[in-house]
């Protein structure tokens, strides 16, 4: 029996009983299934916004709301009173095996989850890395002694063989780390922040320079806890091209991407406030 208050998303109340709302219940099932795939409340909140999914009252779903959903035992048919669970009279929306998979993920810290899934990360520099002859580099990998080694290989080398390009192959991890370190340094440079603010202001008048600085600065210490799929999205958003040669690499940024990221981060700061 429902004792009052707003019912959880996916249910409606009739005669003091929780009944499944089919449309909202489908969203709840998708949230649980998608969390098992990506393990990120932040990314899930963004995907829900893109899908136009809101709470039953029409409010934006943020990551706090998502984590409350994922911990709400009502979805597996329980009724909770003063912290104790009892068998409920309503139908479960989420199967117990799905619940268990979600909570196995939730027991790990975001940093550990990110490290565990890093081997499955899309190549961060796919489509962005170019050699001294202008040819693109493609991701590849090999296994030796049970270990995975990732590389980027020049298309010139793939077509014409070793020695056809002065930089034919580079280790993926080191190359990606170098680009990420440059990006993180950008977040701390006042002149970059000022330029980003000017670009962002053209499309979002309400954003100010201080907000832009806070938005970009807060991403740096959080980077290691961001899920690999989200890291890949941010790199694709910010980087236009990476040119590599025997002396090092040059990273060309997207000003519009920095502005878009600043707006995203500012919106998340505002939602959390």
Protein model, in words:
By secondary structure, this protein is an alpha+beta fold. It folds into 2 domains: 11-107, Alpha-Beta Complex (Hect, E3 ligase catalytic domain fold), CATH 3.90.1750.20; 119-272, no CATH class. Helices cover 49% and strands 18% of the residues. The chain has helices spanning 22-38, 41-51, 63-70, 96-106, 110-117, 155-160, 172-186, 190-203, 209-222, 228-238, 255-272; strands spanning 11-14, 17-20, 78-81, 84-87, 129-130, 137-144, 147-154, 169-171, 239-245, 248-253. Strands 5-9-10 form a 3-stranded mixed beta sheet. Strands 6-7-8 form a 3-stranded antiparallel beta sheet. A hairpin with a 2-residue loop joins β3 (78-81) and β4. α2 crosses α3 (63-70) and α8 (190-203) crosses α9 (209-222). It is elongated. The chain starts with 10 loop residues before the first strand and ends with a helix. 26% of the residues are buried. The model is unreliable at 269-273 (pLDDT under 50).
């Amino acid at each position: 029996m429902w004792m009052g208050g707003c019912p959880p998303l996916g249910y409606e109340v009739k005669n003091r009983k929780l009944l499944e709302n089919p449309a909202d219940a489908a969203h709840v099932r998708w949230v649980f299934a998608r969390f098992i795939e990506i393990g990120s409340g932040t990314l899930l909140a963004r995907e829900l916004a893109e899908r136009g999914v809101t709470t039953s009252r029409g409010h934006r779903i943020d990551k706090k709301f998502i984590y409350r959903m994922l911990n709400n035992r009502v979805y597996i048919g329980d009724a909770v009173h003063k912290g104790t669970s009892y068998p409920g009279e309503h139908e479960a929306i989420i199967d117990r095996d799905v619940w268990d998979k979600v909570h196995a993920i939730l027991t790990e810290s975001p940093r550990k989850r990110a490290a565990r899934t890093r081997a499955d990360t899309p190549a961060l520099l796919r489509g962005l890395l170019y050699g001294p002859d202008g040819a693109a580099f493609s991701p590849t990998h090999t296994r030796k002694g049970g270990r995975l080694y990732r590389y980027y290989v020049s298309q010139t080398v793939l077509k014409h063989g070793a020695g056809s390009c002065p930089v034919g192959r580079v280790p993926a991890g080191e190359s990606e780390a170098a680009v990420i370190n440059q990006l993180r340094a950008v977040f701390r440079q006042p002149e970059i922040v000022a330029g980003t603010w000017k670009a962002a202001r053209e499309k979002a008048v309400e954003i100010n320079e201080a907000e832009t600085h806070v938005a970009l600065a807060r991403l740096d210490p959080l980077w290691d806890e961001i899920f690999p799929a989200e890291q890949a999205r941010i790199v694709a958003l910010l980087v236009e091209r990476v040119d590599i040669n025997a002396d090092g690499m040059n990273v060309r940024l997207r000003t519009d991407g920095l502005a878009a990221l600043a707006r995203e981060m500012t919106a998340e700061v505002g939602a959390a406030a």
